[in-house]
Structures are given as structure tokens and as C-alpha cells.
Design goal:
alpha/beta; N-(1-d-carboxylethyl)-l-norvaline Dehydrogenase, domain 2; 15 helices; 8 strands
């Protein structure tokens, strides 16, 4: 099957490697010409996935060339570029093409979830989203990985499963698109908080305390926005939350540790400049969304005060102890 991967960040490359392993004809689009030149010369992208050899695929800056005649498109760009990417894809994609979103987050100015951003621009009957505990480097190294797969059609679920699933990648299907989107977005924000707890010098016990409280709040948020509370127990929910909130491989967790350890404003700005910290951007969007919907989610209020308003990270621990 002909498959396009839009975006050649670490996770996009990890997905592409598994698609190639499954015997599909894979084409990758990048907006970065230097990356394309490096790959065509060396077969690697060491700044993205260090030491990982990428099998021969077409990697190009030409979007028309990449999506021509493909049957499935995986959109793997950062959340803040989703609208721009979908607009570019709009005239190139037919209704028959299956679209799978691997990005996580919420659009900043509309507070829309990413599947809604794509559907706003692209007329497709078959779209899905994958989310679960999966670091790109582990995916690239062929470690066993699991995803929740939420789709708007049985056809989309069947096709996406067939192209991506193998002896190292497991997909569990659901129709709860809202729940999976919320889990994939909010876990990056909670990872900021988990990192702060670590940066403050507290133990794994306190981090587990935070994660447990976050699970309750996550379930409440899913219910308030029309999703299924049971999704919190899926790969996209507790699975991804545990991974992202406990590992230094997570850029969100690492950024939170910087905040907790009282890093300077200059250090924080430098980290944000050279690393994609989705939780930082999602925090602002989810904060505005819950205010607009009049949803009470105190943990988000506390994280927002610390990250955006530069208040003392110790507020987070005080909040946990006082929360009823």
C-alpha cells in the first residue's frame, strides 16, 4: 500500500519505520530542506533520531509528490502547524484517502481538537487518531508499543490497523475520538507538573500522588466534554500518562523539572527554542477552553499560574495536599 507521512520529526520517522517494516511504499514530507539533504546523503537524521538508519524511502519538500496516489496519510506535524498543513493538503486529498493523526494538542486560537482542525479543511469520510505510551526512539528501535486508535468509521479503523499493526505495534480500536484527543493533549500538561514535582526534589511517591489525582481530573474533563470516562483507562489515558510523567525522555517532563528546580528565565527560553514542548502550548489552550466551557479543573489553574504567570512551583504541592 502507498502511504505518506507528513512531518519528519522523531515520532513521524518512528511511524514511517514501522510502515516500511510492514512492506508499504512510504513517502515522507518535510518542510526542512536541510533534513531532506542530510537523509539523501546519509540515510539518517542524527539530530532527530540519533544513530537510527532509515530504510530507503522518498523524502521530499514537495508535498504534491509525497501525497500523489497514496491511500493512507499519517499527519505527524506539531499541533500548532496542523491548520497550515491541512490547508496545504486540502486540494491534494480525495475523499477516499484514509487520514490518521499522530499529533497531540489543541489549536491555540479556536481551542479545537486536532481532528476537528483537519475536518474543517479536508472533506474526508475516513479519519482516525492514534495515541498511546510511545517514545519515538523506542518505536524506532522496534520495542513493543501500543496505541489507542479512535476513528469516525469502521473502514478507517480497519485500514489504519492493517498498515501499522505488526508483531511490535498493537492498536486497540475505540469510537471515543473526544476521549482519546483529550488524553493525548492533557497528558503533556500533567507531565509538566510531574516534572515540577521532581525538580522540587520530591520523591516518586509524590509523583504517583500527582498522577493519581490527575487521572481523576482527566476523567472529569473527558465526561464534561462529551467523551467516555472509561477512556482514561486506555493506552491513550493511563498508559500515556504514566510514561510521559515519569521519564526524562519526555520533553514535557524535562521542561517541568527545569521549572521546579528554579531554572533561570534565559534557560527556560533556550529550552523552548530548541525543543518542542507540546504541553507548554497545550496548557494555554486547555486553560482557555475550560474557562470558556465553565469547567472547574483546579490542577490546570495551578499549572497555568506556575508556567505562565511565573508563580512559585511549590503551589503545586500545596494544592495536592489541600485538595479534597
Amino acid at each position: 500500500m502507498k502511504v505518506a507521512v507528513i512531518g519528519n520529526g522523531a515520532f513521524g520517522l518512528g511511524i514511517a519505520l514501522n510502515l516500511k517494516k510492514n512492506g508499504h511504499e512510504v513517502k515522507i514530507w518535510s518542510d526542512n530542506q536541510e533534513k531532506v539533504i542530510e537523509y539523501n546523503k546519509t540515510g539518517m537524521l542524527n539530530k532527530v533520531l540519533p544513530g537510527v538508519k532509515i530504510p530507503k524511502v522518498l523524502m521530499s519538500n514537495d508535498l504534491i509528490e509525497v501525497v500523489r496516489d497514496v491511500e493512507v496519510i499519517f499527519i505527524m506535524v506539531a499541533a500548532r502547524f496542523m491548520d497550515e498543513t491541512a490547508i496545504q493538503l486540502k486540494p491534494l486529498v480525495s475523499k477516499k484517502v484514509i487520514i490518521c493523526i499522530g499529533s497531540k494538542g489543541i489549536e491555540a486560537h479556536t481551542y479545537s481538537f486536532l481532528i476537528d482542525v483537519v475536518l474543517r479543511n479536508i472533506n474526508t469520510r475516513n479519519i482516525g487518531i492514534i495515541s498511546g505510551p510511545s517514545f519515538a526512539i523506542d518505536l524506532a528501535h522496534n520495542e513493543p508499543i501500543a496505541f489507542s486508535l479512535a476513528c469516525n468509521s469502521k473502514k478507517a479503523c480497519k485500514v489504519i490497523k492493517n498498515v501499522l499493526q505488526n508483531d511490535r505495534v498493537k492498536l486497540r480500536a475505540t469510537n471515543d475520538i473526544i476521549g482519546v484527543e483529550i488524553c493525548g493533549s492533557i497528558k503533556n500538561v500533567i507531565a509538566l507538573a510531574a516534572g515540577m514535582v521532581s525538580g522540587l526534589g520530591y520523591s516518586e511517591s509524590t509523583q504517583a500522588f500527582l498522577i493519581t489525582e490527575a487521572l481523576h481530573d482527566l476523567k472529569s474533563l473527558i465526561d464534561s466534554l462529551g467523551g467516555k470516562k472509561s477512556t482514561v483507562m486506555s493506552y491513550a489515558g493511563v498508559g500515556d500518562l504514566l510514561l510521559t510523567c515519569t521519564s526524562v525522555k519526555s520533553r514535557n517532563y524535562s521542561f517541568g523539572r527545569m521549572i521546579g528546580s528554579k531554572a533561570s528565565k534565559e534557560e527556560i527560553e533556550t529550552y523552548l527554542k530548541y525543543n518542542t514542548v507540546e504541553g507548554y502550548y497545550t496548557l494555554k489552550s486547555i486553560y482557555k477552553l475550560i474557562k470558556k466551557k465553565k469547567i472547574k479543573l483546579p490542577i490546570i489553574d495551578i499549572i497555568y499560574k506556575i508556567i505562565v504567570n511565573y508563580e512559585d512551583p511549590i503551589l503545586l504541592v500545596d494544592f495536592l495536599i489541600k485538595k479534597k
